[in-house]
Amino acid sequence: MAHPTDYRGIDALQFKYRGTHIAVVIAGVAGELTADQAADWMANYEANQANAIVPMSGIQAPALTITKQAISGGVQFWGWWNFPDTQAWQGPPYDLASTTISTNSCTRTQNHAIWTYRNNGSVQTHLGSMRSHAPNQYLIWNVADYVTNFQNQADKGLTRLEVVRTASCSGSINVGAAFDYEGNNGGGIGGISIGFGFLSVSYSGSGLHDHWGTDAIWTTLYPS
């Protein structure tokens, strides 16, 4: 698969085979970005990681994005997280990654997947597993993160979820998606509340945890 933040490369393939362009939403950045804008932002983020301020307590915020690209009969959403390499904090039991969906009963979700990587992004660590899934509403992944040799073993990661039209429906369908990440080291996960565009987690016992999320990204599915 193409590197998930090779926005220009993904966009070129999308335009070649679908005649459309991808769009990207980055946490903390207003509006949808083009592939070129997202690539420039990510390059600047990577270049400045070494100068990131390490908090006395807490977790450095990751770069968090959600990308949409057209597929046959629907749309593919990619959620991506990337923590700065200046802090090794990850530990059991789990972090949580989620994609929430706004759609209607004329669609279905499919083709779910997750990938996790060490700091340099080149070594896949296979630390993700599905926690819960409500069709057409949300998908939550466990990320069984930890630290080895001062490297976060789930420092970067990628989730995939597709939304496609069902054959029985006509007319256009507006579909939205948002991506959230809950960083957790040592906290026992109690209750989870989730809805479109938010993820809220309660804990038992003490631990280090924080939460980040993107704004929603939208698309319209038209009849074929």
Structure characterization notes:
This protein is mainly β and 224 residues long. It has one domain (7-221). It has two helices and 15 strands. The strands form four sheets. Strands 4, 6, 7, 11, 14 and 15 form a six-stranded antiparallel sheet that branches. Helix 1 (7-18) runs antiparallel to helix 2. The longest helix is centred in the first third of the chain and has 13 residues, at 35-47. The protein is globular and about 50 Å long. The mean pLDDT is 89.
> What percentage of the residues does DSSP assign to strands (E)?
over 45%
Could you estimate the helical fraction of the residues in percent? Answer: 10-25%
Report the order of strands and helices: HEHEEEEEEEEEEEEEE
- Low-pLDDT residue spans: none
Radius of gyration using CA atoms only:
17 Å
What separation lies between the terminal Cα atoms? 27 Å
Number of helices: 2
Give me the count of strands: 15
**Count of discrete structural domains:** 1
Write the layout of secondary structure elements.
Elements lengths: L6 H12 L4 E4 L8 H13 L15 E9 L2 E9 L12 E8 L4 E11 L10 E7 L3 E6 L3 E2 L2 E2 L3 E10 L7 E13 L2 E8 L2 E7 L3 E6 L3 E5 L3
Antiparallel strand pairs: 1-2, 2-3, 3-10, 4-7, 4-11, 5-10, 6-7, 8-9, 11-14, 11-15, 12-13
Quick structural gist:
With 224 residues, this protein is mainly beta.
Features:
224 residues, mainly beta, 6-stranded antiparallel sheet, 5-stranded antiparallel sheet, 2 helices, 15 strands
